[in-house]
Please model this.
Amino acid sequence: MNSIFSLSGKKVLVTGAASGIGRCVAIEASKLGADIILVDLNEAGMQETLALMVGGGHAAFKCDLTDPGERDGLISQVDKLDGVVNCAGVGMTLPFKFCSEKELGRIMNINFFGPVYLVQSLAKANKINKNASIVYMASIDGTVTGHIGNSSYAASKGAIMGSVRTQALEFASRGVRVNCVSPARVNTPLIKRDNISEEQVEANKQEYPLKRYAEPIEIAGYILYLLSDVSTYTSGSNLVIDGGFTVK
Model:
């Protein structure tokens, strides 16, 4: 299996690498031979991730991807990449009529504009190798389903999927693949919010056919597939990973 999905010799940038799915992708990709560039605002979390990784050649950069100056500074320091994984993101649960312009702007900046401008800037700087793989983190909300109180988050993730389809076409001439992964709920810090009780979480799990949320490794595996040469004919796709939620 490792020979099929090997990432040996590949350099991969992973955002949101201090925790959750991003951390899991970084760790598992390092085991498959990749050199990883960790990107996050949480320096301590990135150091914890680094301590769990295999091999050398890894680096970590603190960067606010919504800040053009910080983003440009990051791009100037990285080598050419064979993979970009956009895991950084935030959630917000708030009824639509109470979503302020400020809050909607914050969600869109972090979940949509940050990753999209990162990839655009990398491309302009010629930092994306031919036949590279770009992976965006979307969600079933906004691409497949909708949930009460999730309009801002769903809007940011739906926008990601719309951009991915066009990016896949525009990057195809260089053999660069662009895909997104759309999980349902995953056991990461993202689902820990003050306005959602443990009782509500447990009740929500019962709506899933498997009666549980996904673990980060169950999402990371699909991202590793997209980074590997096994997926060289997969582009413009939205991989839904939801434990059967959308077909129940």
Q: What stands out?
A: The domain at 11-240 is CATH 3.40.50.720 (Rossmann fold). The first helix runs from residue 20 to 31. The chain has a mean pLDDT of 92.
